[in-house]
Specification:
- GO terms for molecular function: beta-glucosidase activity.
- This is 6-phospho-beta-glucosidase.
- Belongs to the glycosyl hydrolase 1 family.
- It is a single chain.
- By secondary structure, this protein is an alpha/beta fold.
- The protein has a single domain, classed as Glycosidases (TIM Barrel), CATH 3.20.20.
- The strands form 4 sheets. Strands 1-2-3-4-5-7-11-12 form an 8-stranded parallel barrel, surrounded by 5 helices. A two-stranded parallel ribbon has the order 6-8. Strands 9-10 form a two-stranded antiparallel ribbon.
- α9 packs across α12 and α13 packs parallel to α14.
- The longest helix is centred in the middle third of the chain and has 26 residues.
- It is globular, with a radius of gyration of 21 Å.
- The mean pLDDT is 95.
Amino acid sequence: MNSNRFPESFLWGGATSACQIEGAYNLDNRGLSIADMVKFVPKEQRKGDRPPNVTRKEIQEMLNNEGNYYFPKRYGIDFYHRYKEDIKLFAEMGFNVFRLSISWSRIFPNGDDEKPNEKGLRFYDSVFDECKKYNIKPLVTLSHYDTPLNLALKYNGWSNRKLIYFFIKYAKTVFERYKDKVDLWLTFNEINVIAKNPYIGGGVFLEDSDNPLELSYQAGHHQFIASALATKIAHEINPKNKVGCMLARTVIYPETNNPLDIIKAQRANQMNLFFTDVQARGEYPGYILRYFKENNVYIKKEIGDDEILKLHPVDFISISYYKSVTESSNSNAERLSDSLFTGVKNPYLETTDWGWQIDPIGLRWALNDLYYRYRMPIFIVENGLGAYDRLEYDNKIHDDYRIDYLKKHIIQMREAIKDGVNLMGYTTWGPIDLVSDSTSEMSKRYGFIYVDKDDYGNGSLKRLKKDSFIWYKKVIESNGENLA
């Protein structure tokens, strides 16, 4: 193999989620999801880049006074009506894979419905048919931060074991429906977020418990079981199905070679990798058992749970990677702005407008660490730069900064492959501008395709190609060789 090229089977594309692009939140019998209740808060009123951990009381107040708020994820970028136009643009770039998610509440509007919504099923039939038209393989996430709202309000989301049953019913429905159209699946997007933001990760209201930490990890256990059972069913329905887990991978460095810093960073990395340890190795590791004991966390398991996890591990590991984090035992160290994954400032790295430190070499480190920890294929399903893009007078968008970011990460992917890592593919986040998950902004843009819409929902929704569109097309055409 040419050392500057990727394997011939390598998958190149982009990644999105239903709750950030589809819109049409109230059409064709779709029910509300937890994402539909995240209101827009202007940047000057927010603290950092952390998504809100919404409370039950706030949900009820917003439902009673919906006219007082703007909920950007309800509208997305109208992919629901423009999917043919958007997929055609992806095909023009040369995508051979497109990561998207199915909106659970579009298939089962309340989550616990007896029968699925046929109109929702038909929509994804049309989307997958459009992908097939251009020889684009769908990579489908079952749950991407959009648990049906009814399941949150009625059952307190994934803290309730009943959600395993509802999820399996949903998963089986779509596995059977699309068995001839989809064979690459992910169960839960960034499953480790359940421990960081239980509302976003699983529709869990922490105020329902006097032990919020335990409630979060109990919800995570239920998702582990649901994921393992979904993997089992996927293999039974179509032996060609490959099912992956998905981790928000944030590499954690020690600030110094002080052993206290090193241990703190190691523990933080372990807490990040706990989720893939369970899904890939099929068991709870010793370090998490110690953590649970020291923090009064007692996970309720049913007979057979451990066997389910052991018998049905995932087929591959997928990750999002945007940044690295630095940890320190020094309580006075300068810390970055608040986000789900934050730490002290690393002086060797540049920082984005949203306080995320850019670390391409950290991606190579992460890929090596994951592959030699699990010996499973790795798929990078999110990586990208959220930035302010300027629309010029001639409708051009010159985003050299995005090209530079992606180029440096692709170079490190190439190095990881030379290191022996089995890397399946790369889907950038997101190939078209979409509503930010963490801040619900449109101005935090990631795409190769500009969407004319602002933070308050104003705009024509017209799609425009950025400079990075042409660049990524050349990258794919050359299978990663031409990065100029």
